[in-house]
Write a sequence for this structure.
């Protein structure tokens, strides 16, 4: 028996949201999330749910303030990065589903084309496609030039 169950990786994030059922729907429409299962209370509040985005699993639940489980304020939750085959299409899909655009897809000096959105549940997302390989030396030089405003 493996210490890590099949379908999981070493780290599995767990999101706390306000309105778990709506969040599950949003993540499906915005990022193509596939619902693995949900465990609702009789009231409909989500005790526990799991989705996959690409090959990664994410857990999700509604807030439980009595247990210290609170959703982040909009735009203040952790940042997730999703690699996709077409970042421009993925960005438009997320925005059409209700994500707030923060940065449109842009070619970056480290070799990715990436854009950023905030979801309605407090979390931040970078969508990216790797478009070119960049050597460590070229990346460091480009980062220095960027930091200096060149």
């Amino acid at each position: 028996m493996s210490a890590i169950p099949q379908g999981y990786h070493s780290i599995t994030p767990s999101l706390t949201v306000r309105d778990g059922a709506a969040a599950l729907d949003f993540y499906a429409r915005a990022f193509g999330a596939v619902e693995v299962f949900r465990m609702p209370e009789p009231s409909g509040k989500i005790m526990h749910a799991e989705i996959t985005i690409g090959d990664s699993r994410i857990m999700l639940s509604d807030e439980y303030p009595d247990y210290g489980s609170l959703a982040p304020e909009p735009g203040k939750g952790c940042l997730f990065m999703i690699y996709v085959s077409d970042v421009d299409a993925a960005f438009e899909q997320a925005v059409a589903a209700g994500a707030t655009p923060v940065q449109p897809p842009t070619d970056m000096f480290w070799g990715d084309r990436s854009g950023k959105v905030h979801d309605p549940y407090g979390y931040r997302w970078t969508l990216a496609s790797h478009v070119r390989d960049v050597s460590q030396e070229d990346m460091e030089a480009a980062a220095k030039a960027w930091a200096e405003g060149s």
Remarks:
- The longest strand covers residues 46-53.
- Helices lie at 20-31, 87-96, 136-147.
- The two ends are 54 Å apart (CA to CA).
